[in-house]
Amino acid sequence: MKINWKTEQRDIKDLKPNDKNPRYFTEKGISDLSKSLDKFGVADPIIINTDNKIIGGHARIKVLQMQGVKSVDVRVPDKLLTDKQAEELLIRLNANIAGDWNFDILANDFEIEDLKDWGVAIPDFDIPEVRDKIENLTKGLNIHKRNPLYAISFYGANNANLKEFKANKENIKILADSMSDFINYFFKVKNDMAIITTPIRRSKNSLFAFADELCKEISKTTKIPYIKEVFKAKNNQRFGDDFEIIKNIKQNFIILIDDILTTGQTAIRCNINKNIIHLIAIWNG
Prior knowledge:
Elements: E1 5-11, H1 27-40, E2 46-48, E3 54-56, H2 58-66, E4 71-77, H3 83-95, H4 103-109, H5 112-117, H6 128-131, E5 142-146, E6 149-153, E7 156-157, H7 159-167, H8 170-186, E8 193-197, H9 210-222, E9 231-232, E10 244-245, E11 253-261, H10 265-268, E12 275-284
Parallel strand pairs: 2-4, 6-12, 7-12, 8-11, 11-12
Antiparallel strand pairs: 1-4, 2-3, 5-6, 9-10
Helix pairs in contact: 1-2, 8-9
């Protein structure tokens, strides 16, 4: 039978911590939560059992106590939850998050410093210990992590010079040479390999698609076949779910090449059940 919940008020001193709470507090987490409660109050009520034992909201209660708050809104079930029900809900409240961050939207629509200030964990994208192993192979090589993606980039740029760099077709040959050297150095047997790219989106002001031309040059040098237009995006902005696969690939080892790495979401959404290495021409850092 479905459990119904109602909102009531309780004195904080009467609420009982749950000794099975699976979360531990960090100094940063408490600091971020304190800022949020200072600004917005308790927008999300505390979850308790009918015996006043806390099921969800231990950190909020801790911060409210530190702030000297005496009472708080709570959500209470219409009947006492069994120990098993309370344990399940305790875990589900911490685990059942229906989605992951869309880093494309975060990167384009929000300021990074704001996100950090609001408590969003911005991942450490660079992995120096991996980069150090191959730093002598080619100048400017970087290894990045965009969870769950690992990618290798060959040139660092920023928004100030990115458009100018991509507009020069000679830069395609320079990058293709470096990326081909990398591929030829690490992959001696290429008969089961193919090169693909993300859904092609050509700028209105460009006569060519940078990633497409890059793949052609690399394929020419490495002798690895380039399979064009493997994925289809739902819209020109390439937002939304995983891209649709519109071509079958017989090869089992895929080199996915893209022109720019910012958040990595475009490459991540190229979801194909193959062994993939992601090579990115430009790291937009």
